[in-house]
Amino acid sequence: MKWGSFVLALLLLTSLCGYVDAQKKYKVGLVFDVGGRGDKSFNDAAYRGLEWASQRLDVEVSYAEPGPGGADREILVRRMASSGKDLVIGVGFLFTQPIVSTARAYPNVKFACVDMDVGSAGQLPSNVVALTFREQEGSFVVGAIAGMKTRSNSVGFVGGMVGPLIDRFEAGYTAGVKYANPKCRVMSVYAGDSPMAFQDPARGYELAVQLNSQGCDVIYHASGNTGNGVFKAAKERSFYAIGVDSNQNYLGYDESSGRNWALTSMVKRVDVAVYLVIEDLVNGRFTGGVREYGLKDFVKMGNETYRALDFAVDDYNKSNLDAETIKKANGIIEKIVGGEIRVPRSTKDL
Amino acid sequence: MTTRSNRKILAPFVSLLIAFIIGGVVIALIGKNPVEAYVAIFRGAFTDWGFTLFQATSLIFSALAVAIAFHCGLFNIGANGQLMMGALAAAYVSLRFAGLPGVILLPTVVFAAICVGALWGFVPGALKATRGTNEVVVTIMMNYIAISVVSYALTYSMKDPASWIAQSAMLPESLWLPSITLGADPMIVVAVIMSVLSYVFLWRTRMGYELRAVGFNQMASSYAGIKVRRAIALTMCISGAIAALSYYNYLFAYQYRAVSDVIVGTNVGFDAITAALLARNNPLLVIVSSLFLAALYSGGLTAQFELGVPSSFYLFLEGVIIFSVVMFSTVLGGKDD
């Protein structure tokens, strides 16, 4: 009996220690999508966000990646949740279902899903935040750059799958072009009406060649892998292409001539989204629902400011963008953030 | 004779030990403590029994498929494709006839999966039997065809219109499997029954005897009056039919829908080769080897975020296991029976 109470006291003490410790430091777990670190895209960006958080905020971070095929996405999310994490982040829309079902089982843990497929998720539990982007704002900025750059006064847009998602890109881009250059016309085409439209570089090439032969000298693509064909056409036929999602400027580099045909890329910064959601957690501002990151959201690390959406400037494309254009583009960003420019969400609002 | 069979029993254990030692060295080289890593793997596997059993269930079906084919002298690398086609058929039929009552729907769905899996095994089997085509090459190619068929179906005709992921709609609730003890689903029981049936089939039936005889020596079997071609084609059919059930638990006890990326990206059909090798193609030992590999995999997931042991460590360890099993069975056990 005496020993029993002693053990009980010891147990209580240790659990209390655990409690105090948990209060002091937030624990964040992140699950990559298949492929994990080193993909030079979403996973790497997410990891950078996690690193920023562990440097700047008082959090303990850990991460994992699913095995081939990723049938264990949900298992990883669940184990993270059950191992005492305060926030579990899934990178990529394939985490939609796993996060929604796990969140129901762990109402005290918070969850975030990058690029969540809100349409198929149904009613979001209140402890889930969908991290999405206002792609129309970034598209507006690159549209304005295209409008400033064009000599033929016609620019093109290659979309992947027809639907509300890519429509946002088209709407923002078109509005941006018209804002910078009202005389310029925008020709928009789509690769198809199924998800395969994001996986078809040959189609992208074909569409880009068509647009270029009709006079477009700048083409923006929002079409996943299909866009690789747009860059190929740009190099062959000497027009400018604009990349999407991650910095694709290197795709425009033509080794034989040494020229670069990437004008810029509309960058969606997953690192900023990941960092900001962790910051929200630490500051007690975490709320469930759909969180849209736009031009106004940024992270300052050292001298660098990283916006959630941005246009990419690097060694590959700096010869294509003069200081004047960059200054104007930054001015447009200021105006959108300040609310002076309203960016349409859909081509219906144009 | 006794010492030789003792050695044979010993061989898988020695190979595993060697694999773990090499694995430990690699963990040490990436700057982690090997003992801690193995403890984390062990703990992870046993705290989440449900997933370990879930993973083992899929592995058992595919490993049985590989093992049975091995007994007939056939190397079925196509379990992965047979699994995918089985899953697709099950998902399709369940959605197509969702209105039927569960008691009728369940056997229909299982039957459809088995038939499609058998067909996927029949093609390489028949080609081998009639044209002497190498079944290794054909099954690998059939895997690629299965990948294309599954991703096409789930991107177009079977896609859930509400989602922009290539995945089917939710499968009918009447087929959802309940969770039994430890968070596992009833399919583990089916898998164990299937192992016993496979054992009985191979060693207690005439057809099983014929099949093994063909595996030993085709010429002699043919001379003894066994229809060798029929045995080969039939073996591949049976093999495919069993493999087709590997992802049944994934569909009806876990995700409740068919997600293209997950089905197409699976590695179970290849892990199954390791499981069959470790079990020396014995259907009953397949249960043990599958549980073991599943535990390793399941524990490896936890070791990742607890200790930062990369996920590819599992694949590495699996490779070393195959290597040492093959090497040490030859060294210790002489020629494999």
For the record, the count of structural domains of chain A works out to: 2
What's the alpha carbon Rg of chain B, rounded to whole Å? 20 Å
Secondary-structure element pattern of chain A, one letter each: HEHEHEHEHEHEHEHEHEEHEEEEH
- How many domains of chain B, as an integer? 1
The largest β sheet of chain A comes out as: 6 strands, parallel
| CATH 2nd-level architecture of chain B | Orthogonal Bundle
Q: Work out the largest interface and the residue count of each chain.
A: A-B, 33 and 36 residues
Question: Which blocks of ≥5 consecutive residues of chain A have pLDDT under 50?
Answer: 15-22
> On the 0-100 scale, what is the average pLDDT of chain B?
90
Architecture of the largest domain in chain A, CATH level 2? 3-Layer(aba) Sandwich
CATH topology of the largest domain in chain A: Rossmann fold
CATH class of chain B: Mainly Alpha
Low-confidence stretches of chain B: 333-337
Number of strands of chain A: 14
CATH superfamily of the largest domain in chain A: Response regulator
Our estimate of the beta-strand percent of chain B is under 5%
Number of helices of chain B: 15
Oligomer: heterodimer
Residues in helices of chain A, as a percent range: 40-55%
